[in-house]
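User: Quick one: structure for sequence A, then sequence B.

Assistant: Sequence A:
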Amino acid sequence: MIFVSVGTFVKGFDDLVCAADEAAASLQLEGFAQIGHSDSVPKHLHWKRFLDGREMQQRLQSCSVVVCHGGVGIIGDAMRAGRPILAMPRQGMTSATNPANDQRQFVEMMSYRYGIHQCLDVTQMTRDLRDLLAFAPTQIDYRLETDIPQILAGFLRGGCSEL
């Protein structure tokens, strides 16, 4: 069972919703998606726009993999739940038509430091998810007691100098 989360960004994340839904259908996976403000609605996955904290934690605890945007909150929650993560960061420069932050740097840093898996190309979601499910353990100890607060603080200060 997969859990998909796109966060709360006001324009949603249609590419992630569609790619995850298509991957789940292609791989014959059951799952659930939190789609936020996305215009796209999954055809295969069960979904809700938003989840309260309790339901979010339940979904994270019961899934076998988390497919998400590159947000600090969802990645941290998935790490605390010990789940394998496939993150598809929002990409592109911030502008009037794209007011979301580019999440690539953060996802790259978390990939390097903690083995978070990345999907940087929407057309590769099915392959990336299949590979993750084939090789990732069902429970991961991300060793959060070590340096994650320092990594996040460094990132929020403006960069990936922690790499």
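Sequence B:
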Amino acid sequence: MAAHSQIPKDRYIGFAYLLITSIGWGLNWPVIKVVLRDWPPLFARGSAGLVAAMVLAALAALRGQRLSLPSGVLGRLGAASMLNVFAWMGFSTIAMVWLTVSEGALLVYTMPIWAMLFAWAIRGERPSLAGFAAVVLGGLGLLVLLAGGQITATTGKLPGVLLALASAVLFAFSTLIFRSPLPIPPLTLTAWQVGLACVPMVLLGVVIERPNLHALTGPGWAAMGYMAAVPMGLCYLCWFAALRRVPPSTAALTTLLTPLVGVFSAAVILPEPLGLRELSALVLILVSVSLAIRRG
């Protein structure tokens, strides 16, 4: 009886961790827009990521995880870092220069749909009926989001659209080619991936963007602190803790709250428009992504 009563309790704790993770990641979308008022995207996101990587490495050491890497994994780890972190965080942050939070978050969170299409094209894993429905609904959602907002080259938003989609597509591709896990503990792995990706992000930011280090205002400092501490620190810890208590498929579905939180919080914090177009696209894309995740 004790064992049976313990299972629901663990599940509830796991869902609590997932809720913290999804809210923390979701709030990061409008926070990024606050930072971009003062600092350019690559330098800002890379700097926050480096701080987060050092904090994660310290936490890994405190938990007794080895920070040294096994032999023969550096090449694969570096490639995964470029696709999972540099493209994911870097491209999506640059995209926010042109896009609203609702546009950026919904475009980026189409990655499960792209992963399903890659699995079909490369591995021959033909989608089920639900998978085809996911593609159709996702396409409709993007059509509503983009055509309704007249996102074309003439509006100046096309670079943001392409960067956000590239972020989603490259992340999805990485899930296909890096399916077998690296023999590295989770916190250590995350610290290495974030660190390896954020070093070139900062260097490129310094060389290309030439940031004014004194331009960061009070709200900008607060936003930078949030970016480093919450989405890449607290949320990763909660994510790993949740995965010990709930199935990965359940955890993946719960993260659909992230773009939902991002869109609604941006309407309050920034504020950004939240009308019928955004809400319709949100529903279509979230249903599409949930079908793609369930299929996976």
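The radius of gyration is 19 Å. Residues 1-6 have pLDDT under 50 and may be disordered.

User: Thanks, that's what I needed.
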